[in-house]
What we know:
Layout: H1 5-11, E1 17-21, H2 25-29, E2 41-43, E3 47-48, H3 51-55, H4 60-67, E4 74-78, H5 83-94, E5 98-101, H6 105-109, E6 117-119
Parallel strand pairs: 1-3, 1-4, 4-5
Antiparallel strand pairs: 2-6
Amino acid sequence: MDITLAELRGRVGEESLVLLDVRTPQEFQGVAGAPCDPTQGHIRGARNLPLDRLLECRSGEEVRALVGGPPGSEIVAYCHSGSRSAFAVEVLRGAGYDARNYPGSWHEWSRDLSSSLEQR
């Protein structure tokens, strides 16, 4: 099941939540991004793990070594519009993680003035 803006907003900063930004490092850092977004950056507390890096993994063990996270943690992936993160969630689930997609992703988050942003 996907995660909504309201749920994620209330859970940012939870120890049991690993927030993965699967966009490029440039998008994560806020030096590149879609011109339709009012601001560039990432969700506070997110880790950058580009989708292409995740796809280089050849086994569940490699994915788990790359992602890490405390035992029993939930993974939420996001990108710009939910497409790359949906694919990442399938890879993460295949590696045994409890993973969810945030389909609104940065496109939605960057428009919500009450959200925790880390901007350039």
